[in-house]
Amino acid sequence: MDFEPFRGELMAYCYRMLGSFHEAEDLVQETLLRAWKARERYDPGRASVRTWLYRIATNVCLTALEGRRRRPLPSGLGAPSDDPGAPLVPASDVPWLEPFPGARFDVEARADLRLAWVAAVQVLPARQRAVLVLREVLAFTAAEVAEQLGTTVAAVNSALQRARAALAEVADAGAVAEPDDPGVRAVVQRYVRAFEAADVPALVRLLAEDAVLEMPPVPLWYRGRGDYGRFMERVFAMRGTGWAVRELTANGQPALAAYAPEPGGGHRLHTLQVFAVIDGRVAHNVVFADPRVFDAFGLPREISAKDFHRER
User: Is the pLDDT of residue 174 over 60?
Assistant: First the structure.
């Protein structure tokens, strides 16, 4: 039995359930190990290999979620800050939501991988979370989900209804355009040019009126062009100008790796930034500074001026 063709979609499933790419990797490995050990007991008359694997993965995820705190973004923990000069103190005790490097896997870029959607799903109880993803995202039937969860069709339908109601106030992920959309590419490229030039007024002109900027593991976040621009002025004052940027994608959204200039030459990786572009404006920027996130995306920690210009 060859389970490898299912690894990518199982990664996306476990990521949606846990909100952590690194935990998803471990849980998928555990799922495939359990499946291999139980392969002689698999009954093709009862379920397809795919359905059987998802049952194992669901049980693995539900066990992992027992007693766990949800993985939020800073905007899910409180009101926005009104002080762009506030100390940037990481909250190391918070299990922050992580981005998903979809380019590493054969995973379709869908709205239900968006950071905002995954963050909203983390608020749901674990079994509701599983029902929502299995039914709404993966299109399993209510009977299949009931079999996977060891419950009834009525219970599955009830859980799905409650999950839908809980997410009703989440912004429409479908409004976020795909990263390969020509309009989105143009916005991101203008943002990159402004960022590399440390041109804050140009950055601000690309923002939605109520644009959100947040920076896990720092629990602060800002809303609105004004505070976003003032914070960027602070960043460039602290780290200088002449940044280098590498474009990529995360969670099916446009993203960039920002490299700050080093005093002795070259650039060092500073942040991974994931954008939501809506109606031709940057509506949301989640800025990750965790080295484990950098590793998940396979980003080099340093690049030379020669490397940067070669990529361009």
Answer: no
